[in-house]
Amino acid sequence: MIELKNVSFQYGSGKKKEYDLKDISMLIADGECVILTGESGCGKTTLTRILNGLCPNFYEGQLQGSYTLNGEQVFASKKGQTADPEEDYEKSVDEIGMVVGNVFQDPRSQFFAINTTDEIVLAMENRGFARERMKEQLGKVDALMGIEALLDRNLFKLSSGEKQKVAIASALSVEPQVILLDEPSANLDPEGMKRLGKLLGKLKEKGYTIIISEHRLGYLKDVADRMIVMRDGMIKSEYRRGIFYELSDEKMTGMGLRVLSEIPGFEPTGRKKGDTPILRVEKICLKRGKRKLFDNLSAEFYRGQITAITGVNGVGKTTFCKIISGEIKQQKGSVFIYGENTPAKKRIRDCFFVGQDADYQIFTPTVLAEVTLNTEYSADNEEVIRMLKEFDLWQFRNRHPASLSGGQKQRVILAAALLRNRPILILDEPTSGLDGRHMRIIAEYLRRAAEKGTCILVITHDREFINIAADEVLEIH
User: What pLDDT is attached to residue 22?
Assistant: First the structure.
């Protein structure tokens, strides 16, 4: 189905010494399910952008090598020369898109409609499918995925898992032969991940070729045929199914990856400093329309303690934390900080909230400026330099944060949050785009911050992270 020969790619004008992808050669068979994994920034997303035609047709850069899709040539550059999109491409992005269906890490980035049904049929509409054929295809996708309950809904009122289902349905509507997914489990709860694994199994049974760029690998155990590990823009190693799911946790950790074993239940340490909570939430009530989101919800949080806040997608975890931080006002109830009933405006000063989407929290043109913005630290401060080096961001210090990979951007925002030194730090899915090694580095930094007395709340579905970092778990039903 897919053949790449000696493919290299460099973003931008080609003035850099290093290529972002280096001499990639690979074969993917028709009907095969392949996982692309590796530490954040290793080139996984760039490789998927080659496969779907976005590099260099949308993300400009220097491309070399050749790509054959389903027996037909997509591009082939002359030896040692950069492929010219005008001369060396045999297929347009649209033609590639008829064969390769895409599901991006954040489904919102690919939505164009407000109504779910409109979104699912949009690709067919753009290609001029007859109305009857569109209805027929919608029925086929519904039969395959069981999405009847999601049709004719407001996209912006869906949970993360539901949005992802709509994105997959939209990709399937034009009957591609390849499904390409980038970090599909990033914002899913454990049940959502299981459902995604079963859906991918169904697609594989139907004969689709599936390529998944992913950090969390356990839910793909019964689906994947092969795991390709990347590092520094190159293929480091490959494992067939019978081999890679026997790799020990120590071996996976040594490669900087997530463990493959089932994460056991959580046993809280109960660790806290002092007997008086720094933060107390008392009888919080909030309604959204007719839906009662919270009713008399109360909780206590202590200095030096890391609390993981869990619950299924859409239950209200982020809303609850935004009430604490002062971004949303509760209808009833109180939030006490240092024992005082604290209004929303003052809570914003005491809390630092890091949201799920790093792109909405980037304000400056360089990584160094971003992490030191509104802090007491100068750019040459030893703590700043040490943190950037440990977060593997020092080499990108003069790059625009928006040009980095998803996991790298996440680390920039986390570094900025830790350097703010607020008494209460709230993180929403901080490990969603992180590989195993950087997840463990972040856990260690949060532990250090807690040891200094910071009260830390982490909204997360990441059981591996919870077991490493958290002292208590608050589960919202």
Answer: 94
